[in-house]
Amino acid sequence: MEPLGTPREGPRGGGLGAQLPLALDKRPELDFSEYLPGPNAEGVAAIQAWAQATPAAGGEGLLLYLFGPPGTGKTHLLQAACRAAREAGLASAYLPLNQPGLDPAILDELESLDRVALDALDAIVGLPAWEEALFHLYNRLRQAKRGLLIAARGPTAELGVQLPDLVSRLAWGPAYQLRPLDEAGCAALLRQGAQRRGLPLGEEAIAYLLRRCPREPGYLLALLGELDQASLAHKRRPTLPLIRDLLGTRES
Question: Residue 86 and residue 244: Cα distance in Å, rounded?
């Protein structure tokens, strides 16, 4: 996924936006409307509140930790949170820590932003320079009452973080576990996505997609977008033959 930065100051920004590294100078296309909470409603509600909280909240709820296996939508939620924060007038940045070529110095001065979302924490665990940089970022963000949202594949106790002080910082805020959608949840996701696009996707087509495709929200939403484009290009409804053709093209 592409990283996000805000090239303008937020209401309390200190001008960092104009100096953000190119690695941060992208914006997400994802938002909360395409994420089906399913069993993750509590965590999603907390992230939505994180994206729009104000300093008047006293800093409570501004440090969140999110974890779950691949396919549960961690990246989607982090990008959606930054987008919602930006729409609320807050300067925000989304940074995937597994992006090649990053240096710990990229965390410097991020406390000048209102909201910071760090994805794929697993990628820097066990690297002393990174762990120390993240430890100091936690301290600066908390002191400034800015928001930090971190995502990883597992709970903090299972990550293998080497710096004891960082272990304690990771436990400062609430942690939310994301669980995969079941078959009914994936079907509901397809219905919701099709309705948003005005795509007449029938139950037979949904059942066929779930039989043939990985039950991962990101994959299904991307496929739905391709199906929408194919339907428009060929001026055909999303029938089973069109879906078979599309899947055949993807698999070839």
Answer: 40
**pLDDT at residue 49 greater than cutoff 90:** yes
**Residue 176 pLDDT > 80:** yes
Count the Cβ atoms, other than its own, within 10 Å of residue 116. 25
204-231 average pLDDT score: 90
Whole-model pTM: value is 0.78
The pLDDT value given to residue 2: 38
In the chain, pLDDT over 70 holds for what percent of residues?
Answer: 85
Handedness of CA 153, 157, 158, 161 (dihedral sign): positive
- The residue behind tokens 């104000």 is 54
CA dihedral 94, 97, 99, 105 (to 10 degrees): 90
Of the candidates 153, 148, 96, 168, which has an alpha carbon nearest to the alpha carbon of residue 122?
A: 153
